[in-house]
Amino acid sequence: MGSIDVSRDDAVATVTINRPDRLNALDETTRIELADHLAALARDRDVGAIVLTGSGRAFCVGQDLAAVDELDDAHDTVDRTYNPLVRLLAGMDTPVVAAVNGAAVGAGMGLALACDVVLVGRGASMSCAFGRMALVPDSGVAWALARQVGHARAFDLARTGRRVDAEEALALGLATRVVDDAELAATAASEAAALAAGPTTSLALTKRLLRAAADLPLDAVLDREALGQGVAAQQHEHVARRTAFLEKSW
């Protein structure tokens, strides 16, 4: 039995990191298995949205420090097995909802922040804990923090590795919404079902556009907006909604 569970409910796939005895810490086998499942779901046209969560008391506490050999060549470990996970989550057209059900630490925080919707249980927390191990942020954490909270606060979070509770995560822009712990799974499923219901093409184009916009000059973003709008406006999803709107308006 693997360390990743995948379940389906119509167009919603739920991916659960299932190593509760290790607080869902990631060893290489788990990372590769998670990447394989995410890649398969990204290719599956019947999947309209994905929920990413953890089993037990934690979302994911990052690198399994018991796998000490994986840090002998940390560059290879990160480049080969962590970076593909973040690229998959951020780059796939399928929207991904993080259901942060407990601690999201280090690379676990990176996985959550790479998702499109970040729902945080009221008792959950995030921690950029790399500094406490005399390491540097990876798994996209530096990228996300620098853009979402600014340099000074990002440096503070990275240097101290302090615990950020759910309400502070929301205030900092690291969470989309705080949800009562008992309602987290149902809320994530509902959010994912709404995303899966569409409009699929415009959501995918919007995700691509927003992911690229932070690193592009205004003129390049304007060009991408125009191109995306040209595609979206031709889709049945838009035509049907426009027709319904006009019928109600007139």
TrEMBL record:
The record's section on SUPFAM superfamilies has: ClpP/crotonase (SSF52096)
A Gene Ontology molecular-function term? catalytic activity
The family database entries (Pfam families) matched by this protein are listed as: ECH_1
| Family from the record | Belongs to the enoyl-CoA hydratase/isomerase family.
Q: What is this protein called?
A: Short chain enoyl-CoA hydratase /enoyl-CoA hydratase
- From which organism does this entry originate? Actinomycetospora succinea
Taxonomy, top ranks, is: Bacteria, Bacillati, Actinomycetota, Actinomycetes, Pseudonocardiales
